[in-house]
Design a protein that fits this description.
Blueprint (H helix, E strand, L loop, with lengths): L5 E9 L4 H12 L4 E7 L4 E7 L5 H10 L3 E2 L6 H36 L6 H16 L1 H12 L5 H21 L2 H4 L9 H25 L1 H7 L5 E5 L5 E5 L8 E4 L8 E6 L2 E4 L1 H4 L5 E3 L4 E2 L4 E2 L4 E7 L5 H14 L3 H31 L4 H15 L2 H21 L2 E3 L2 H7 L4 E5 H5 L5 E7 L3 H12 L4 H9 L10 E5 L3 E6 L2 E6 L1 H6 L6 H12 L3 E7 L3 E8 L6 H10 L3 E5 L4 H11 L3 E3 L4 H13 L4 E5 L5 H6 L2 E5 L12 E3 L5 H36 L3 H4 L5 H20 L6
Helix pairs in contact: 1-12, 3-4, 3-8, 4-6, 4-8, 5-6, 6-8, 6-13, 8-27, 11-14, 12-13, 12-14, 13-25, 13-27, 14-25, 14-27, 15-25, 17-18, 20-22, 21-25, 25-27
Amino acid sequence: MSENHIISTTFPVLNMACAACSAAVEQTLQQQKGVIEASVNLVAAQAHVTYDARITSPRKLAKAVKKAGFVLVEPSADSENVVAGYQRERANRWRVRTIGSLVFFLPLMILSMTMLAIPHLHYILWLLATPVLFFFGREFFVGAWQQATHGRANMDTLVAVSTSVAYLFSLFNTLYPQFWLQQGLQPHVYFEASAGIITFVSIGKMLEERAKAHTTTVISKLMQLQPSQVHRVDDDGSMSVVPIASVVEGDRLVALPGERIAVDGIVSQGESYVDESMLTGEPMPVHKSKGAAIYCGTLNGKSPLYYTAMHTGDATLLSRIIQVVQEAQGSKAPVQRLVDKVASVFVPIVMLIAVAAFIVWMLCGGDNAFSYALLAFVTVLVIACPCALGLATPTAITVGIGKAASQGVLIKNAEALENACRVTTVVLDKTGTLTEGHPVVTDSMWNGDDDSRRILRAIETHSEHPLAIAVTEYLSECVDIPVDASETLPGKGVKAVVNNKTYYVGSRRLIEELDIKLPPSMHSAAMMWEQQARTVVWFASEEEALATLAISDPLKDTSSQAVEQLHNLGLKVVMLTGDNRATAQSIAQVVGIDHVESSVLPEQKAAFVARLQDEGEVVAMIGDGINDSAALAQADVSIAMGQGSDIAIDVADMTIISSELTRIHQAIHISQLTVKTIRQNLFWAFIYNVIGIPIAAGVLYPICGFLLNPMIASAAMALSSVSVVSNSLRLKWQK
């Protein structure tokens, strides 16, 4: 949507504990008037919201989320620091609570297992368990109460209900043991179980918070790249250190040896090598001299570079990359929709199962029916883990998109990341993708005088086509003459009027369609050049051809390697080009292309992609993001080859920042690894709950007399969440 009142932004969200929490925040936002779309990421602790600024505002959204029991932070210059501080505080809080719980739980455990003959043991256990539950574990009870006041339940609810039931039952048995003794039953206490549940879940939360922090390290590292101060050259030539916020477009700045470039700019003086690996993933420093573009966050080498500020603040390439990565990490993969539906009903279903287990045990448990029923009830609540389900997809997506960004591949959203693993055919544009994109004239043959050269240069000066620029540079010594009229013939060339006479510049197909005479010598030369994989441009009047020029756009050094890598992934590679068949076939043979479509007009590229899709292919289209926009939009996955600050972030699902073709293989490979990790996470999360809950309910008791201890169940629950996050973190180191 292009209307300026439609705003899409990312809000930090605090106080979310599990998947049920993120679902509640998302539902709350989606129900607000003026909100067009809302997506909440539990791992990144953020909500990406698209809303109509005429109807709602960040303040109204924050107020609605607060009523739901959570905190939505309005975007500001300091919001990132607020969230970072909150996350650090949360991690430290869980660490303190875990240590505190262990201090009381360990002696409680030892006493309950080894010193049963101690007088008043139950009172000692009660005293040790109480601070674990209601001091170190109070966040579970506070969270459960907040959710209950809004008619919802989450993981805090499961923990609070299970531990309080076990605690209160044990307290009753401690204070009134005669109630059971009069019935010939022993008054059992489960203080160690209630304290153990809090302790093990706290350990899991501490480890989970630490692991989740590692999933978003790419964003934090990118944010640290921009320096807070910069050396500015004043009008009198003196140098002063100023805050980065005070720099405006046009300021003259200097990057001293070893300093980071402060903003995007153009080098005005000096020569140096700049390390751009943090943006492009390319390890080799890039030589920069006068007129070269340099980018915020990159590292200057051993010589000072003077440069003029071009883009500052949110307009820098680094800021745009951070924004894209943040939005992508906050987006949801299609598979997450199923998980969200399950998570939204998970806790209520688990509570119903726990109640059902309690009733069954009360009816069938014999003399110890109540004790068994209570254990089953508590254990079912404890072992169920909505967190594992909620973390399975977003942790993998966050790590996968971050890994891609660190290698110079920007992935726009989670859907693109998931779709890329299904690609069967890769369609490549030729110019600027397989080739360098900087064509030069290598040969020419003329059938006219010097006026023909001046006329051709004048016509080509009015065109921005790369081939026209090559011709203009080749004829740079010719004096310009006025052009009366000029008309672009899409996919064919140009028609122009000079000195009341009509001329044409374009492909052989254009000349043949106009039935213009081609001298045999020029025709032979053109055929030879085409066989040498060079592009041939014809210049003609209405009567005859006046010149033919051979233009070569050298292949990138890595084109053959990139195509081979795609073949190794089992993908079919197709090249689309407006060039003639002979040139296209020659290039295809050199780099190993499977299929070539030559002499393709821009509007025909999208139709060709659609034809492949009709044949059952899942198509990834790689182009420059502008001329190939229709084909990119048609493809299942669109990949733009970025050109520095002209990067086509908004055009494609993915962008290769460095224009390095081998990154396509990395993008698809990362997609495959990420989707594989998501499937592993979901499998273990589902299978854990499917197997664990029935065992906790006691289905094995009639077979082998086994009843699961609630403490073991809580440890297993904590381990499930940590294992899911840890499995996602493996993506960082997978090749």
